[in-house]
UniProtKB/TrEMBL annotation:
Family annotation (NCBIfam families): GeoRSP_rSAM, rSAM_more_4Fe4S
Record-annotated Radical SAM core domain positions: 6-220
CDD domains: Radical_SAM, SPASM_MftC-like
Keywords: 4Fe-4S, Iron, Iron-sulfur, Metal-binding, S-adenosyl-L-methionine
Cofactor(s) the protein needs: [4Fe-4S] cluster
InterPro entries noted in UniProt: 4Fe4S-binding_SPASM_dom, Aldolase_TIM, Elp3/MiaA/NifB-like_rSAM, GeoRSP_rSAM, PqqE-like, Radical_SAM_PqqE_MftC-like, rSAM, rSAM_sf
Pfam families registered for this protein in UniProt: Radical_SAM, SPASM
Organism of this sequence: Geotalea daltonii (strain DSM 22248 / JCM 15807 / FRC-32)
Protein name as it appears in the record: Radical SAM domain iron-sulfur cluster-binding oxidoreductase
Coiled coil regions in record: none
Keyword match Amino-acid biosynthesis: no
């Protein structure tokens, strides 16, 4: 049986701005254009994507809370019938802001925490005191009745700290911990030699993370990397195999440009001018992502039908070809 072909993406990851109060060394959007769609037009665009059949929108940036009209934007999305969430560094969230976000319709907010050691997190994010502010933000959000998660970018600084990171997430009472694989996009590409892991280190990290996940921890541990199929992680409940980019979700930049995901800098259209459902149906780029062809060591690999070559964004960034084997893959 083939994969389900949806009539529209389930989720839009929408960067409402690109300016940020942090200086993260792995940022994928730091070099993007700073042009932003104004609030009125953005609300019209949100209604447009909801009408197309999109069920949820996740706001990001940059740091989305630097937009003073974010609450209005979120209200527009919620009133259109979509589930509304956000990724934030948490620095600007106090008790008042958390209540404002709840009133605006946010159902979930993910906060970035990259180490259980405050000084390591602060160094990675480039702002002193950011770890403490992130921890406080989670408490304020939970107090306001918003579901919370932690997003952790795995890199050289934290890949040996799986158990302590999970312990911290449990202590902070979040519902989900997202271990994000290093993408090599934007500044991540420039700093990949200092931050990215070797294939063998990725194998070791995922083996430990899977072991912790199978221990029955108190929270949902999310591993968003297709290559874990090589470690026997075959989820029969997944709607799609391999990367979800262009299959379940799309990305919209602050100027309205539409890309398969935030880490694939190929523009397939613009939400201000194009019909989302038509792009979803007819884009040649999305067609390539949905019908990848095994090349190199993927040919004949027993796990290919599960991972489909791994992360398409990473393959493109480091080889120039969606179909190339994921550079993180440890298989010979």
């Amino acid at each position: 049986m083939g994969e389900i072909q949806l009539k529209a993406p389930l989720t839009i990851n929408w960067a409402v701005n690109n300016n940020c109060n942090f200086a993260c060394r792995h940022c994928y959007s730091r070099n993007d254009a700073m042009k932003e769609i104004d609030c009125s037009m953005l609300c019209q665009c949100l209604e447009k994507v909801a009408t197309a059949g999109v069920m949820s929108v996740n706001f990001g940036g940059g740091e989305p809370l630097l937009r003073q009209d974010l609450a209005t934007i979120a209200s527009c999305a919620a009133q259109s019938g979509m589930r509304v969430s956000m990724n934030s560094n948490g620095y600007l969230i106090d008790r008042k802001k958390a209540l404002e976000l709840k009133e605006a319709g946010f159902s979930k907010v993910g906060i970035s925490i990259d180490s259980h050691v405050p000084a390591i997190h602060d160094h990675f994010r480039g702002v002193s005191g950011s770890h403490g502010r992130a921890v406080n933000a989670l408490a304020y959000l939970q107090e306001a009745g918003i579901k919370t998660s932690i997003s952790t970018v795995i890199c050289k600084l934290n890949h040996r700290d799986v158990a302590p990171l999970i312990d911290l997430a449990e202590k902070l009472h979040v519902e989900q911990l997202n271990f994000h694989n290093f993408k090599c996009s934007g500044l991540g590409y420039s700093n990949r030699d200092d931050l990215d892991l070797t294939p063998e280190e990725w194998q070791s990290f995922y083996a430990e993370a899977i072991m912790e996940k199978q221990r029955g921890r108190k929270l949902d541990i999310s591993l968003d990397d297709p290559i874990i199929a090589s470690l026997g992680m075959h989820d029969t409940n997944n709607m799609v195999k391999g990367s979800v980019c262009g299959k379940l979700s799309l990305n919209i930049k602050s100027n309205g440009d539409i890309t398969p995901c935030g880490f694939i800098p190929i523009v397939i259209g613009n939400i201000l001018a194009d019909d989302l459902r038509e792009l979803w149906k007819s884009s040649s780029i999305l067609e390539k992502l949905r019908n990848k062809v095994a090349t190199g060591k993927c040919v004949g690999c027993s796990d290919y039908n599960e991972c489909l070559g791994g992360c398409s964004a990473r393959a493109l960034a480091l080889t120039g070809d969606f179909n190339s084997p994921d550079p993180h893959c440890w298989q010979p």
